[in-house]
Amino acid sequence: MFTDTQHSPSKGKAKDVPNSRWEAGWWEFYPLVERLQRSVVWTKSSTLITSHPVQPRLISRLFSSSKEYAIVTPEPVASSPSAYDPPKIITVSPDDIWLFAYFPGLECDGVGCLWKRGYQVDSWAIKESWSFPRGAGVIEASWVGSEREWIMTADDSITRLPSRGPLTPVSDPTLMIVTQEQRLQVYYLRDYGTNLKVLSCSLVRPDSANENQSAVPGETIPGTARVCVGAAIGQCYNGPDPNDDIEDPDFPLFDARNGMPRPPSPEWESSGEEAAIELCEVKLSFDGTIFSLKSKPLPSIHYSTRSVIQLTFICPPALKPQASNPSLQSPKKDGKSQENTSTESNVMYLVAGYLDFGKYTEPPQSEMVLHTLTHQMSPSVANPGQMTWLSKPTSRSFTPGVMSFFTPIITKTVPIKAIIYAGVLDTSGYIANTKPKPKSTPIGKVIVLKLPELSDDTEWESSAILSSVELAGSELPLSVTTSPNGTLLGSMSAVVPTQTSFHALPKRHSNPTLDPASHLPLKSLYTLPLVSALLARKSTADISFLLSNPSVKADLLAETLYGALSLFETSVPGGLTNSWMSEVIGTAVEIYRYLFFTETYRSRALRSSNSKDRQHFMELHQTALEACTVAACLAAFEDCQENDAYDLEAVWQLVSLSNWIVGLLERLLRECLTLDGSIEPSESNNDDGPNVPDVSSSDSHETALHTPILLHLAHPYLLSNLRNVLSHINAFRAFLGTLTARGETAQLASDVLFDLVDSSGVGLPDSSSAINKPHLFIKASDLVDELSKLSKLSISGQNTKEKDIDVITKGLLLRHGSGITCLRCGGRSEVTSEVNAAGRISRRWRAWEKTWLARCICGGLWVTGMD
C-alpha cells in the first residue's frame, strides 16, 4: 500500500518531491499464524529446495545460477495432484544425501516421501514413500545427529564441536517425525538393509518401543480430536570430548508441541487452540543389537492468548572451559585454578515466537520468549533426589516492528556461544523519490540477540532486509532460510514460484579487541567461514557470491585467500597439505569466475565496452583451474605408474594428458618470452653481455602480478606440481621408447607422443633444469630454433574449442548433450558415462576417474546435462 507525503513548498524555492510511503496491513503477517508460508531449505551443496505455491511438487534451484531442476514426485501424488496440498515439511539430512517431504492430503491420507541423492546434486531418486492417516499428518521432522561444526578455540587451533543427538552407528538415515496425533515416529534404514523400519511412541504419556514389538496405534480422547499443529525437536550435545560419546550414548531428545484443543467440555467456547506448550523428553538408544525408544512427558509451559508462530530448541555446545574462554577457570581454595564445574552442558533453550493481533485493526505485536531448561535436582518434596528439567522464562518485545522469523547459530570464534538471528520487519516506511529511482528499499533488519537475556549483541552488526519498491509492504519475506555457511538469508516469494531474494546476514565487528586471546588476528571476516566450509565439505558458493560483489575491495579477497592458507598451515590438524591447497585454489576458481560474470553484467548495465577487468578475472580463473588440472594430471600419472613402467592399457589417456600439459607449457614459455622482451636488461660490467633482469625489483613483480599464468612459476606448490608432471611425461616418453615388443596401440601412441613433444617447440628434457631456476628469463634468441619447429600438425595446436574438451580426462567429449557439468568452473565431463571403446580399460585409470565422480578437479559439485 502506497501513499504520498505532501510537503508545502516554500516561497522562492523549488517544490519538494513527495516521498512515497508504504504500509503493511495486519493481514500481511497473518500467514505466519496459519503456517501458510512456503517450506524452504538451503542444502549443504548450495541448492534451494522449496515447495510450489499451489501445486504438490518440489522446486529446486542451484545457487547462484538460475538453473532449476525438477525432483520426481511420488506416484500417489503425481497420479492425483488435485488431491494434495503443496508439501509443508521439507528437510535434508546433514550429509546432504537424504531428502524428506510430506504432502498433506485434502480429502485423503497424506504422503511422505524419502529421496536419495546421487553423485550429481540434481539427481534425486525415490527410496521409499508411505502414507499418513488423516489426523496423523507430519508437523515436524528432524534427522538424528547433526553436522559437527568447526570452530577456532582460544589457542588458535581449529577443531570440531561434539556430536549431537543419539548415536546410531548401524543406521543411515535416521529420521524423527512428530505427527498430529502427538506421537514420535523414528524411521531408519539399517546398514545393508532394503526397507525402512519404524519405532513409535506416545508423547502425552510415558511410553516405550523397540524393534521387536509391533507398532501401537495412536490414542484419541473420546469426543475430541486432539490435533497438534506445531512442534520442535531438540538434540543435546554429547559431551566436550568426542571420544566420550560411546561411553554415554543415552542422550535425550526434546519435543515441544502446541495447539492442542482442550478435553471435552459442555461449553462450545472451550474448543480452540490450547494456550500451552507441552514438553516431552525422549531417549533413543542402541544396545548393540536393537534400537529402543522411551518417552517421558514434562510439565507444560502455559502462555496467554497469543498465537505461536515458531518453536525452536537451542542447544549450547558443551565445551571444556579453556576451549571457549580461559576466564572460565576458577581458583580452588588452596589458590590453584580449577575448571568451572557449571552445568552449562545441562542447559537447553526453547525459543517461542508469538504474535498478538488484538482487534485486527493494526499490525500485530510480536514477542519472543526464551525458556531456559535446566537439568537439576527436583525441588519438589514429593520427588526428593530425582533429576528434573526446570524452566525459567525471559521475554522481549519488538514493537513497533514485527518479528517474523528467527534462527540460532553457533559462533565460530571465542567466546564460543549460541546466538539468535532475529528478523524484524517494519510496518511502514518511506521510499525516496530520487533520480535514478531506487530499485529496492529497506523494510526491516536482522539483529543478533544474546542468550539468555535476549538483548542486542553489541559484538555484531545488524543487516538490512531489502524489498523491491513495487512490492514493499505487500509481499513480506515470510519464507526464509539461511545459507550453509551462515552468510546469506534467502527469502522466497509467496506467489512467484522461482522468485528468490538474497540478503546479507549480520557480521561480527572486525575489532581485534573483541578477541584478545587470539594470537592469529584475521583481517577478513570471511576467512574462518571459508576454512570451516572446506573442512566440512560444504559448498562455498555463498561466500564466493559475497566476495564477488562489486563493492568488495580486491584487498579483502586477497586477505581472505591468504588467511585461509595461513589457517590451514597453523591451525588445522595436519597442516597445509596438498589436498587443502587444492581446495583453496578451487575456491579461487569459483570466486574469479563469479567476478568475471559480475563485471560482465555490470558492463552491460553501464553500457561500457571496457573489458580489461573482465579479461583479467578470466585469466585468474583460468590459471587457478590450470593449477587444479596439473595436480590432477600428476595424480593420474602416479596412479598409472608401477616402478619405472606405466600401464599400457591407459596409454591413450596418458597421451591426452601429456598433450594438455605440453600445451600449457608452450603458453607459459611464450608469456615468459613476451615478458623478457618487455623488460630492459641491466647494464653489465663484464664481457659476457647484458645481465639477466633483476627479478627482485618491484617493477618486475608488478609486471608478473598482472600476468596470472606466471603463477605456475612463482608459487612453490604450482611449480613443484608442474615439474613433477613434466618428469612423468619424460619418463613416460622414455618408457615407450624402450619397448621392443609392443602392440599396435602402444606403437601408435608412442609415435603420437614423440611427434607431440618434438613439434611442440619445447625440449622437455632440457626444460626441467631451466624451470628449476627461480629466475626464468630466457632470451628469445635461445629459442628461435625451437619455435621454428612448431607445426600445424601438432596436437596441441589443433583448433579445438575448450568447451568440447573433457575437464577431467582432457579428451574430446564424445556424447554431446549428455554427461555432467561442474557448478564451480563450468567444465564438462563424461567420467560417469560407460566406456564403449574397443579394447580393455585400465583398472588404474578407472580408479583415478572414479575419484572425480562426486566432485570436479576444482572441488566443484556436478549437475547433469551439458547446458
TrEMBL record:
This is Mediator complex subunit 16 C-terminal domain-containing protein. InterPro entries: Mediator_Med16_C. It holds the Pfam family Med16_C. Residues 322-342, 679-700 are annotated as: Disordered. Residues 797-863 form the Mediator complex subunit 16 C-terminal domain. It comes from Serpula lacrymans var. lacrymans (strain S7.9) (Dry rot fungus). The lineage of its organism: Eukaryota, Fungi, Dikarya, Basidiomycota, Agaricomycotina. Residues 681-698 have a biased composition (Polar residues).
